[in-house]
Amino acid sequence: MRNTFAVAAKEMRSFFYSGAGVLVFFFFYVMAGIFFSLSVLSYARLSMESLKEGYQAVEGLGLTRFVFSGLFLNLGAVLLFLAPVMTMRSLAEERKLQTLELLYTYPLSDFDIVFGKFLGLVWIFELLFLPTAGYLWILHSLGGVFDWGPILTAYLGFWLLGGAFLSLGLFISSLTENQVVSAVVTFAVLLILWMLEWISDAVGGSAAGFIRALSPFAHYRDFTLGILDLSHAAYFVLFHFFFLFLTMRSVETRHWKS
Amino acid sequence: MPESAPHGSADGDLAPVLARLEDVSKNFGSRRVLKGISFELRKGEILGFLGPNGAGKTTAMRILTGYFPPSQGRVWIGEQDLFREPQKLKRRIGYLPESVTLYGEMRVCEFVEFAAQVKGLAGIKKRREVEEKLTRCGLWDVKHRLIGRLSKGFRQRIGIAQALIGDPEILVLDEPSNGLDPKQIMEIRGLIRELAQDRTLILSSHILPEVSALCDRVLIINKGSVIASGTADELESGLRERHELVITLGPPADKAGVFRLLENVPGLERISIETAREGLVTVVVGIEKGRDVRAELSRLFVTQNLPLLEMRSGRLSLEEIFMKLVLEENEDASQREDA
Ligand SMILES: Nc1ncnc2c1ncn2[C@@H]1O[C@H](COP(=O)(O)OP(=O)(O)O)[C@@H](O)[C@H]1O
Ligand SMILES: [Mg+2]
Fold first, then answer.
1. In angstroms, how far is the first alpha carbon of chain B from the final one?
2. Which of the ends of chain A has fewer CB neighbours closer than 10 A, N or C?
3. CATH class of the domain defined by B240-315
């Protein structure tokens, strides 16, 4: 286990040393900041209007639902762009630098390497999104009242969504030695996943349900609304397993091809 | 800790076998890159893999270091099968891959520390090990520098330092001086010689001086097979009987005439003729095994009125032996293909 952590820590460190690390954090917080400010502003406007007209704030148009559900849905879309940049170097760059050869000859199993890399990516991702809790603090100190349940499920959902994207990106990074190829292909695949909901609407019929069930965003949405459904969680767990398994397989192909 | 083993003493017969490749083959798809190679590595020796590019040296080393398993055959580390217990046995091997670039954005000490961590060291032990190996490889003064900013020579030292971490019994260095300038090569060789004093080493090279300068024993590898092995002396004496003759003729000898003359002499291989200074012609001919053509040749030159100034057996340098073995092997192979 210590080996796995060593690999994870190295993964994290190389990410922050690379320009991509700075870029990802910068982009994420610019986007998060914009989405957050916009939803807070429109929430403020709406509640002012309803006060003027003598209504109580509408039930269900609470602060939590209005500001945070929207924020997390948008951040999910931001991940489409960030996950490929986070994973593009992971295995591709190591292959190019031939350091992968070193890793394989250290007393590490393939699992240590693949899972260590994945864990490192997840750590980076956690470092990326946990500071968004600062928004809660800002609203709280302004006197906002929250419904904590949906906030926790939204964080859980975001964590699962991010992990899923990272496992997919890691797999694609294992297929090439070119970071750019890795990033572009990952982005393309994520984009297709993102469009699955529309595709399912367009197709209609019995296939629609099936296609929809494949869409990570369909499963993610309920989390942001405070709905904790086991089948959604199971979907993400399977997603992780599937791509980590494929990555293990891909890493094993060195046994018989270049 | 590796004991200091008696170096090259009594053929090294007493030294225990640390690693053994047993009839190891490797295929990539339908390509057979290693064709059943076997050898033993004994404690304390420096074994050289010598072979032209593409011979299979790197592939053999990757198998020995557990990078990938062989398609057939087995690899023993001590008494155990490397691919039965790879994680445990890989600890006994340190590896410097060929032309490894390393992580340019990491600092030297960070990377070596990482190597120590994945090799299972922690805490004070890790710190001591890292310090010792950095010092040993002459990296102490650059330990806070970014790897990407250092010269190729330094990077090769870093590669050696990470291989040394954890004091593995066996050190595998793939073309350690490839791509270095002459000064760096001297330095790396010095370092390797120092390390060899209390360690067992395999190193590969496609150039001979490297191997003959450092190694106790040489395996010549060509097209995936071991075509010769032994000490440099053994290899030389093994080929002594098919030596060559160096002949010097004075004027009026001329290149074309001498060539036509020798062409028709049976038992000569590979005739090369050069015109040296002052109209002297130098001929180097290979002689088939077990033939002595010297008397015949001197008579021939006399009848042709060519002054024979010198005729001596050329002693083959190891370089020439290497070239010859590789060439012969290739000729054999093409003859087999023709048949
Ligand atoms: N992963 C691979 N896939 C296919 N062919 C390979 C692979 N690795 C090496 N080869 C081939 O095997 C042969 C031996 O390569 P290598 O072991 O690198 O030789 P050397 O190190 O002696 O130069 C070469 O012809 C090379 O093209
Ligand atoms: Mg090689």
1. 54
2. C
3. alpha beta
